[in-house]
Amino acid sequence: MADFLMPALGADMETGTVVEWRVHAGDRVRPGDVVAVVETHKGAIDVECFLDGVIDDLAPLGQALPVGTVLARVRGAGEAAAPAAASSPSPSPSPSAPPSAPPVTPPPAPATAPTATAAAAPPPAAGMALTAAATRARVSPAARRRAAELGVLPDALAGSGADGAVVLADVERAAPAAAPAVAPPAAPAPRPRGFDPALMRQAIAAAMAKSKREIPHYYLQTTVDFAAAQAWLDAWNAERDAIDRLLPAVLLLKAAARALVAVPALNGFFDNGAFRPGPGIHIGWAVSLRGGGLVAPAVHDADRKTLPELMTALRDLVQRARSGGLRSSEMTDPTVTVTSLGDRGAESVLGVIYPPQVALIGFGRVVTRPWVVDGQVLPRPLLSLSMAADHRASDGHLGGQLLAAIDDALQQPASL
Questions:
Q1: Are 314 and 305 within 8 A, CB to CB?
Q2: Alpha helices in 85-225 (DSSP H)
Q3: What letter would DSSP give residue 349?
Q4: Which member of 225, 328, 382, 411 has the lowest number of beta carbons within 10 Å of its beta carbon?
Q5: CB-facing half-sphere around the CA of 409: CA atoms within 13 A
Q6: Crossing angle (nearest 10°) for helices 227-238 and 396-411
Q7: Is residue 91 assigned to a domain?
Q8: Does the residue 127 lie in any domain?
Q9: CA distances from 73 to 70, 88, 135 (A)
Q10: pLDDT score at 176
Q11: Do 119 and 143 reside in the same domain of the chain?
């Protein structure tokens, strides 16, 4: 039996709230399956499980739980189910129960308050109560919550889930025909899948203040002649439909990824007093959210993707960051962060490292300036390239090598 824990979706996360279970007790899960939606100050995140087995003992919905809390248990092949498994933890039986009493399995504890219909129903006779308890189907947390909203009695439904469990679809099908004797209470307002800008700002402030206190930053900056990259990009886009065109950001992303392959000592984490290399080039791309706030989900294996693949991945990542639907793996494993201010930003940026990463790469806005080319002063599109790095993990010489490698890659855009 393995524990599935509340993940740390970033260094600035302390608690999370499970607002939806995508599975119910008895379901088979495999590595990479999305099993829950967890709400944090960064919004609602689809959380993946990287265990293989049958899921049991789901944590209740709507409670703020610290990082590392057991959200569910996953039993492997051949392991017996936990006795009296329920969709949420049940209280222990009273120690004062008489030993001669026959064992009766208690019904699962509801994830939400019972409906007014259930509360108003007269208590059944003892024999009927025992029969109902013995035949009562399990109800998934999402189904019980939805049933409370619709005024449906989930325990009276025939379940279509594993072992006859009542799932969300069963409740939805029963809703049009349901006619409770007593009007259900007003449904609570649904929890938003967005984010609270004030809470996010507090979390960003706490994480960045900690970074500046604990990480000895050093900064490097250089200027890149962007003419070759811009000419290549214009030629590429001129031959393609609008949907297949590339943005300059994709060249910057791929150039950074290519440089990190050459200088891997800046791609990873500072943990327990030592540098730990990242498992791949997973670049956290900083996305500014509408209404304020910032997230930096990972573009996985950026060095291995072609430019069109990176364009697709980046477009998808930005859309999901702003509308909801980021995955936990995208929030937990960036090995370095890249921030690009775009064509409406400032000319340069000196960022703050996001721990436990050891570097942040910054690209400013492309501006036209006088530049010496082959002994002549010519107008050229210039790009400010900067880096903040952790002095515990590297020195300026190594940081300079990374910036030089990014510059070299942008001078040879066809090779990207």
A1: no
A2: 116-120, 126-135, 141-150, 168-174, 197-214
A3: -
A4: 411
A5: 22
A6: 40
A7: no
A8: yes
A9: 7, 11, 25
A10: 60
A11: yes
- Residues 96-125, mean pLDDT to the nearest whole number: 41
* 53, 103: one domain: no
If you average pLDDT over residues 176-193, what whole number do you get? 47
- The boundaries of the domain holding residue 151 are 99-188
Report which of residues 409 and 136 the model is more confident about: 409
- Band (78; pLDDT cuts 50, 70, 90): low
Instruction: Report d(CA 30, CA 33) in Å as an integer.
Output: 6
pLDDT (tens digit per residue) in 242-260: 999 999 999 999 999 999 9
pLDDT of residue 182: 44
Residue that is written with structure tokens 């697709």 in the block: 312
**What number is the average pLDDT over the span 344-360?**
93
Per-residue confidence band for 81, with pLDDT thresholds at 50, 70 and 90: low
Contact 184, 151 (CB under 8 A): yes
Number of independent structural domains in the chain: 3
Whether residue 106 lies inside any domain: the answer is yes
User: In this structure, are residues 248 and 366 in contact, taking their beta carbons and an 8 Å threshold?
Assistant: yes
What span, in angstroms and rounded, lies between the C-alpha atoms of 364 and 33?
38
Three-state SS annotation for 109-134: CCCCCCCHHHHHCCCCCHHHHHHHHH
In a domain, 90, yes or no: no
Contact assessment for residue 53 and residue 59, using Cβ atoms and an 8 Å cutoff: no
Other beta carbons less than 10 A from residue 128's beta carbon: 10
For the record, the structure tokens of 410 come out as: 């942008």
